[in-house]
Structures are given as structure tokens and as C-alpha cells.
Design a protein that fits this description.
mainly alpha; two-stranded antiparallel ribbon; 2 strands; transmembrane helix; transmembrane; transmembrane transporter activity; transport; MFS_dom
Amino acid sequence: MGGGDCLPSGFGKYNAGMLIACCLLILSMNLDMFGFSVVLPAMACDMSLDTSQQGLLSAIPLIGMIVSSYGWGLCSDTQGRRKTLLIAMPAALILSLATTMAPTFALIATFKFLSVSFSAAANAAAFVLLAESVPSRHRSRFVFLMASATMVEQLLICSFALPIFTLTFGYEISWLGLVYTPWRMLLQIVCVPCALGTIFMIFLQESPKYLLSRGRDQEALDVLKTIYKYNSGQNKEDYP
């Protein structure tokens, strides 16, 4: 069932796909926010940052989250959960990648603030989208699993950081005015969950509950039929 138990759409592969997509997006948000602190010592050494600059870079992700969260919550309620994610997360991915190749402190700070401001949409929209797309009897378990994804962020980034920071390469990119070192590569690697989650989300549907709340009954019915098709393996026309 999607978004409730009154309209049967089944439970199965579609719901699992939605869980994976939302877990990846919420994980990417946490990596964007808190993963930055792991590379900060290497970045400070590489770019000769003073203490105040390091402190500002540590605070910027939280500032971006605070500034943008209300706006993304409003966007999620007015424009749709899926639409919000498909607007925000690709932008967050691009800005995160731009952060990894920024040659100066000012550009790194700017791109990081913007990337977290966009990735914060996952907190506003992904939890709601998942909760409204699974039957009520499975909802608490799915939301718990999604919340658990936030707990593996430090383990994940540290697992990559340990081998990467043992590398000693430095490739000069003269047209950007920077030297490509391991910390930049690590920041690029942790962008992968955002890319994967966004790709997954392209193939998923809007929350049927949201569509019903906006008076878009036919669209909600079409979504339920699609969920039913993937969960049951039957044709949309067989939807009860």
C-alpha cells in the first residue's frame, strides 16, 4: 500500500528501491555536512589555513543547514517531495564536486556553504517521501532504517580516509591553480552516494499522499498503479 492502507498497492521491490534511494540521499547529506571535518587537517596543511579559517570551514556546513532547512521544508510541502529532491540533490552534487576543485579558501567556503544548503533538502523531503510511500505497518521500520543511515557516515568516510591519506601524490593542475592531493580525491569519493541516490530517485514516484493533498487525484491513482505494478509484477490494469 502506498501512503496508507486504504489504497492497496502492495509491498515489495518498489518500497525497497525507495528505501535505498532515500538512505543514499540522507547519507550524502550527512557526508556533505560532517565529512568535511575529516579532511580539514589535511586541507589546512595543504593550503596553509590559519586557525580562524579552519574554524569557519568547520562551522559553514552547519550554517548552510540552518539557513536553508525551512525553505526546503516549504518547498517540499508546496512543490512535492520528489521534485524538491530532484532539484536540490543534483545541485548539491555539482557544488560538492566544485568544492573539491576549488583553489582558494574563499571558493571552498562558498561552494561548501551552497552545497550543504542544497543537500539539506534530503532532511526535509526524503524522510517524508519514504514515510508516505510505504504501508503504515512497515513505516516505522523503514524510517528507522533510513535514520540508521545517518549513523554510518563517520564510519564510511573514515574507512575511505585511512587508506587514501596514506597516499602521497600531488598533481598540479595549472589552469585551476591548484595541486590535486588525496583530500580532494576523498571529497570526490564521498559524492558517490548523492549521485546514486539522485539516479534512483529519477525512476521513483511522487508521494501519493502529497498528490491527494493537492487535489491531484488522477496522478495519485497513476502513482499507486505504478507502485502496484513493481510490487506485484502484474499490469497496472489489474490494480484493484
